[in-house]
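Budget justification, computational time. The allocation requested in the original proposal was used primarily to generate structure tokens for proteins on the priority list. As evidence of use, we reproduce two of the resulting records. The first is shown immediately below.
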Amino acid sequence: MCCQIKVSAGFTNINAENGMTLCGFMGRQEPCNKADGNLEANALIIKQGDVKIVIVSLDLLYVGLELRQKILVNLNGALTDSELLLCASHTHFAPSVDITKPSLGKFDSHYLELVVYKVTTLLKGLLCQGSEPAYVSYRKVLSFKGIISRRRMGWGLKNGILRRMSIMAPNKSAEIDKSIRVLRITSAKGATLALLWNISCHPTEYPVSMTASPEYPGAVREILRKGINKKLPIIFLQGFSGDVKPNFTTFKPNQRNRRSSIKNWINKKINAPLFESPSLKDWEKWVNDLGNSVVAAEKDTKKLDIDLIKGIRATISTKKLGLQTSIDISMHLIKIGKIILVGISAEPVNDYVSLIESLFPNNIIIPVGYTDHVYGYLPSSKMLKEHGYEVDGFMKYFNIEGKFSENIDEIVLEELQKIVS
């Protein structure tokens, strides 16, 4: 028999206002002039006796340090650090609430306060209202073919010299986790109270760049609500997508990121196939394919026994990974029976999915990146010699200095093991 848990869930919009600047891409300074879909915060509270865990997913690029701190302060001690998991969907079409990354978009203090108020109000309401007895079921679909690794060895210019290097291009031969994971929370009568779903994929390809959008997490959310309940809380957990994106390889003009003519020539003549921005029609088809896959998984979930729930959170410094810059990395484990949500405040590359699954072979692992204050990318050891954006190219945009330790995999796994122990 399942040990009884009780849940409450809800959502609120955190929509941007016209005139706000979006973040996610370098050089995009113009204010947004319209919106496509609602930016939302979706929350789930699970209780078992005196123990509770709270999971909040936000349609933001990053959560940032200030947002987490302000929410906890405004809740007046109602939640501890280990009880609250805050994660961003990583949409590249929302305003910035992270003051530490000006290269990716202008920080908006007004929007930060709006999000703090909306999320705090939502959580206060859920914590005060009665919780409903519930059950948890789970399903994992092993292969969604619409995503691909974005790291491949190719040719590029460095200091005016053509060199062999890691480039951002589709790599069909790279093994990545293409799984869709779905957690369904139901009442005693079988009604769906909330859904959590997870995939590892960058939400970067919405074709209208100056439009605020929750990107594919929001579009899939609407597909699910249309089929189940238009008021259903849906918590999207972005996975370890540091080097994964949608597989769009057509050669249509990219209106968002114009390269110099010589780089265009090199890429198209030497490095094809390359990623290009999709048309709106292509993007909508991709989203529908993904949404249908999530719907199929949701309909086939299997009930799990929940013996206990628990939240464990610890931090390590980026210096532990070999970097000169010191920023805290949070490692947050949420245990729901055999399920463990492994949250890391970074952009972890996809290699870490299998590495962490091997660390906890008797559990169901749901990888969650983009929690809390993201310092930058978390590459795997095998990538370090290849360099590339996820290894060192990102550092100047994130104000990071240093070089990752060669045994970075081992360091991360050891720290996770310490948390569990």
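The second record produced under the same allocation is shown here.
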Amino acid sequence: MLYRPIWFLSALMYRVFFKHFFINYKDFDLKRPTIIVSNHNNAFIDPIVFPTIILPRIYFIVRGDIFNTPLKHWLLWNMGQIPMFRIRDGIDNVKKNEGSFQQTYDLLAKKQNILIFPEGDCVQEKRIRSLKRGTARMAFGAVLKHGWELDLQLLPMLNNYTYPKEFRTEIMVNVGEGILLSDYKQLYLENENKALAKLTNDIHFAMKELYIHIDNKEDDELFEKIVILKRNDMPSGIIPWRKKGNVRFDMEKRLANSINDSTIELKKELEEKTKTYFSTLEQYTISDASIKGITPNGMLGLFLTLLGFPLYTIGVLLNIFQFLFAKKIVDEKIKQVTFQNSIRFGILLATNSLIALILIIALSNIHWLLAVLSPIALLLLAFYAINYHEYVQSWLETNRMNKVDSTVIKELKVMRAEILNTL
């Protein structure tokens, strides 16, 4: 009942919320019963990223503690969510998981798709953590109840966020090859524990291959600095917003692997070079993008800024309330960082939907076509206003860089090249 409206609205809102959306997959088959396995580092956003780019409906395994009232239970179920309780939720609640397992078995028997996060808790880091065996148990439980002819598969799908805490983060969605449960039938019949362990390990390996994984937390900052240079070496245009292919992901994956394989001495050398480079950029209030030369030209930027300002003003006036309201709630009420971006998205989705509904009702008395087009216009103006703002900020940076002594710019370019050549 609520699934499709939210699916449609989320697919539209993502155009504003994410700066770029990269999707990388080979052909995958969701006509057979499928358990989709994914990483979990952006709370409520994670379950609705992949579903908004495909038509088949997906059911999600989510934290059971949010199903704490009959109204929430009804709402969440109608959005395709199935509760799964943890030990910390109490033994009585954990016993309810059997009902959820039976529900998923029956949905899979009807060739429905289940999305699950085998890592368990939501943590924002560039690492795939150890997996719980619950996913493997769910898969084998389904065939035990409905037979091995169920032809069930597990499909790894990973969300790689550039900055999961931030509005306008970029996202790279990678879908791997399906893991056929029938390949584990003989092992399961011989030794259930070995089959559970092997399937869990194979899922973990498949997920890790599709994720930008940094082995050591202390290397995160080094990766984040160098990857800025790498991204600016292959800038992405505003249009098309959704980009298919693995070029961007492969670049970041190679960088992560290089850092993982580097010696301590090489990492220290890179840390010193990147620290010097970025502190110098900060000193002159410019960024690597301007050093690379991908910020707008001075005179052309001024012309486009002046030309686009009237439309930008309209876009701001129609959208500023929603964004300021979302910012206020998140800044003042949401203390847990992992939930901030999800709450921000939810508020923007709800407030924009409300304003769109008001526009439809108000304009339907004038002309039905105006009523239909008004929500689309609202979204397009938000998309334009945000991209215009980012363009102007980039143009202003060009002006700041033009005031910096040319000798400093040359030195920065040398530093930049040395960093990239070191790794």
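A brief technical remark on that second record: Strands lie at 21-25, 34-37, 58-63, 81-84, 113-116, 153-161, 171-175, 179-180, 242-244.
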